[in-house]
Each structure stands twice: as structure tokens, then as C-alpha cells.
Amino acid sequence: MDHLEPIPLWTLVANIKQEISYGEGKMETHKGSKQFSPGTKVYIIDWYAGMCKDITVIGLSRDTKRLITIVIRAEWIENFRVRLCYNPKVCSKIKTYFDKEQTGMQRYTEKFVNDMFIGIPQWNETLS
Q1: CA-to-CA dists, residue 42 to 16, 23, 82, angstroms
Q2: E-strand spans in 17-127?
């Protein structure tokens, strides 16, 4: 039964903030984001390092309670940590995402995850 067990992947994990500021001047606040409830665990799988604003995450949708892959603002998340992901559905979504690239999963390494772990929280500090 070895073939049924997923191979764990290193992932950067975080949670959606309880309150997120929106609008002009960030005067309005909402509980969580439009797609995710507050506190939802998300797996950060990619970033736009040159822009320093947006990240690609996988998490349970607020409405459908299904896993979705979506681009959100880095400032909407908190409580970063690097963990091994054993969830077969999440691992499958990660592989599907990176299979669209020519290099496939070769870019998604433990070093890549650690680089995001160091870089993304620094973006949030500069935005504050």
C-alpha cells in the first residue's frame, strides 16, 4: 500500500487575519477576506517576489468549504510557519499548480519555501 501514501511536501503555512482593512485609505475593516474566514489555515505556494504584495495560497473557501487556489494580498495573513504537508489533496493541488510550468516541481523546494518564509513577513513590515 506504499503507492497510496502521499509524499509530504514542505510548505509555508499561515492564517488569515481576524480583521482586514479595505477601501480607500484602508478605513473599512472586514472579518477575514472575501474568500476565507478569519483564522483559516492557508498554504502559501508561490509569490511575486518583484512586486512584494501578492501571494498564491491554497485554503478552504469560506462559501463552498472546498480547497481553492487563489492569489491574495500578503498583508492579509499572519502567523507564518514552515511545516511538512501530509494532506494528499493539498499536495495534489501544489503539484497541479507547478505542473503548469515548464520546470514543474523542480522550483518548489525546501529552500524556495524557506526563502518565502524569510521574505514575505518583511513585506508586511514595510507596508505598516
Answers
A1: 7, 23, 12
A2: 19-22, 28-31, 41-47, 54-60, 67-73, 77-85
107: cell is 522550483
DSSP 8-state code for residue 103 = S
On whether the CB atoms of residues 68 and 35 are closer than 8 A, the answer is yes
pLDDT in tens, 23-44: 777 777 778 787 888 889 999 9
- Could you give the C-alpha distances from 85 to 7, 12, 39, 62, 76, in angstroms and in order? 9, 9, 18, 21, 22
pTM (predicted TM-score)? 0.84
Q: What are phi and psi of 37, to 5 degrees?
A: -70, 160
